């Protein structure tokens, strides 16, 4: 009779070289920690936030301090999310956009109406990517898409503007 898993000593850590028993259609087999990790989301690859307004925006510009450089693992998917809780304008009826960029290449974008008063509508841009196993620099940009006003992407200590890059698996 083989060792019952419940009777085994607990491992001190999880290693990619660990072998775990599995039952596949009645046959005993094993998987390694590396096989499990290859199919599992690895979480955050980078996160940055700012707490200061950024404006006055009329043309496409970088959002200050919202740039991350990372190296993804081969064959993995990444989710890039840019977020701002409020976009306002000096005149009513403007439209603004948040862009996710790598160099001059736009990877994703989202538009929102920029309100004249109050905190404005928020904007969340997202891109799902499978990038090469090399260093990538991702940044957020903003632009006024339509209208005549000066657009501000608003942020504060309680309403941050952020860039998040996650490994979401294979």
Could you please describe the fold and organization of this structure?
By secondary structure, this protein is mainly β. The chain folds into two domains: 6-39, no CATH class; 43-169, Jelly Rolls (Sandwich). Helix content is 4%, strand content 58%. The protein has one helix spanning 33-39; strands spanning 19-24, 27-32, 43-50, 54-57, 61-70, 77-89, 94-102, 105-114, 121-129, 136-146, 151-154, 161-169. The strands form three sheets. Strands 3, 4, 6, 9, 11 and 12 form a six-stranded antiparallel sheet that branches. Strands 5-10-7-8 form a four-stranded antiparallel sheet, with no helix packed on it. Strands 1-2 form a two-stranded antiparallel ribbon. A hairpin with a 2-residue loop joins strand 7 and strand 8. The longest helix has 7 residues, at 33-39. It is elongated, with a radius of gyration of 22 Å. The two termini are 37 Å apart.
Write the topology of this structure.
Elements: E1 19-24, E2 27-32, H1 33-39, E3 43-50, E4 54-57, E5 61-70, E6 77-89, E7 94-102, E8 105-114, E9 121-129, E10 136-146, E11 151-154, E12 161-169
Could you give the distance between the termini?
37 Å
The percent of residues in helical segments reads: under 10%
For the record, the count of structural domains works out to: 2
CATH architectural name of the largest domain: Sandwich
**Structural class, please?**
mainly beta
Number of helices: 1
CA-atom Rg in angstroms: 22 Å
- According to DSSP, the number of beta strands is 12
CATH class of the largest domain: Mainly Beta
User: Strand portion, in percent?
Assistant: over 45%
User: What is the string of helix and strand elements?
Assistant: EEHEEEEEEEEEE
Principal-axis shape equals: elongated
Low-confidence stretches: none
Report mean pLDDT, rounded to a whole number: 91
